[in-house]
Design goal:
This protein has about 160 residues and is α+β, with helices and mostly antiparallel strands. Helix content is about 30%, strand content about 20%. The chain has helices at about 10-30, 50-60, 85-95, and strands at about 70-75, 105-115, 125-130, 135-140, 150. The protein is elongated, with a radius of gyration of 27 Å.
Length: about 160
């Protein structure tokens, strides 16, 4: 006759291992399959924006047709401390993966282009904020009294 004894610590050990395996199987079964369809990923390049052609191509990558020459080029200093207007504007930047707080106190260049295909009865501008050949922020806005301002992505599409 063969007798084998188990200690309480051995039973606890195998119980924990069994419970871990059951939890792992349940998690694997519960995780959805994200590979059910093709997703077209378009990478937007925010770096190496050295020329006017680069700036135009950057804005066109969002589906805009713009006048090829900027209507305004201005040097701007990002303030060391943000007031409520800058905080609101920076929230627009954060929504598109950018953050102006990294550039507080820095002198940047703002390029303004006129958007020709926005589908809005008014003048629409696209602003690019450039620091050391990199897009660090920007917006698309209208000049009307009841206009709009948003990030580069067109919310109408």
């Amino acid at each position: 006759m063969f007798v084998y004894t188990l200690k309480a610590s051995t039973i606890k050990f195998f119980g924990v291992v069994l419970l871990s395996v059951v939890v792992l199987i349940a998690l694997v079964a519960a995780i959805p399959d994200y590979n059910t369809g093709e997703v077209a990923a378009v990478a937007i390049n925010y770096d190496d924006i050295k020329t006017n052609e680069n700036r135009v191509e950057f804005l066109e990558s969002f589906g805009y047709t713009i006048k090829t020459e900027p209507s305004e080029v201005v040097e701007v200093v990002i303030p060391d401390e943000f007031n409520s207007i800058y905080e609101t504007y920076n929230n627009i930047q954060k929504s598109q993966g950018l953050n102006l707080k990294k550039y507080q106190g820095k002198k940047i260049t703002r390029y303004t282009y006129e958007v020709e295909n926005y589908g809005y009865d008014g003048r629409v501008l696209a602003n690019l904020l450039i620091y050391k050949n990199k897009v660090i922020g920007g917006d698309v806005c209208s000049l009307d009294g009841e206009g709009f301002i948003h990030g580069f992505e067109n919310p109408q599409k």
